């Protein structure tokens, strides 16, 4: 019930392409869905996040699409650049009680953007 | 500059030895977390603390211990009971009012020989 499943494990695109990373969750109590970006040897950093009351959120070249009925959400990176090469993690957090603020992470996607 | 400082960045230990990883934050955040990262497995929660002198087990707490005596500090001890301690360990913190927005340190890589 606490799992977040992420795919693909790795992804290679050319510069300018639109990589898409998908995540699925089971726990309907989750109400906050962030994406984190991690460069080698560094800690993850928050990239963009969405709540279930909206179906899409854009910040710059990054877009989250959210499908509440399917319990799925995805990250799209428009006009991808070599500097976007990193590991991306989706996550989910529940509201209330001891679950508050606890993030459950997906397995991660290693994105490589070729020049 | 505010942030989270983890030390040491790299640590080598012999099997059977306890190891303590340091995590300090000057963000005035209330909650602190320890995650373990292994290739292909994402980040798994070891322990977390919402307030000083209180902490809860995460999903993989066995073989680990923590303390939260000060708001700024949340050290993690990897004990000899942890069967597979070699991993990348990440500390994070969160402001109480920000649900899932974690700020991470740069991690500590522990290798047990």
Helix and strand topology:
The complex is a heterodimer of chains A (115) and B (113).
Chain A: E1 4-7, E2 10-14, E3 20-25, E4 30-38, E5 45-50, E6 56-59, E7 62-67, E8 72-77, E9 86-94, E10 103-105, E11 109-114
Parallel strand pairs in A: 2-11
Antiparallel strand pairs in A: 1-3, 3-8, 4-5, 4-9, 6-7, 7-8, 9-10, 9-11
Chain B: E1 4-7, E2 10-13, E3 19-25, E4 31-37, E5 43-51, E6 54-57, E7 64-66, E8 76-78, E9 87-94, E10 103-104, E11 108-112
Parallel strand pairs in B: 2-11
Antiparallel strand pairs in B: 1-3, 3-8, 4-5, 4-9, 5-6, 7-8, 9-10, 9-11
Helix content of chain A: under 10%
How would you characterize the largest beta sheet of chain B? 7 strands, mixed
What proportion of the residues of chain B form beta strands (DSSP E)?
A: over 45%
Largest interface: A-B, 28 and 28 residues
Shape of chain B: globular
Low-confidence stretches of chain B: none
| Average pLDDT reading of chain B | 92
Shape type of chain A: globular
User: N-to-C SSE series of chain A?
Assistant: EEEEEEEEEEE
User: What integer is the average pLDDT of chain A?
Assistant: 91
User: Structural class of the helices, strands and pairings of chain B?
Assistant: mainly beta
Number of strands of chain A: 11
Number of helices of chain B: 0
Q: Structural class per helix/strand content of chain A?
A: mainly beta
Pattern of helices and strands of chain B: EEEEEEEEEEE
| Rounded Rg of chain B | 13 Å
Measured between the Cα atoms of the first and last residue of chain A, the distance is 40 Å
Helix content of chain B: under 10%
Could you name the ranges of chain A where pLDDT drops below 50 across 5 or more consecutive residues? none
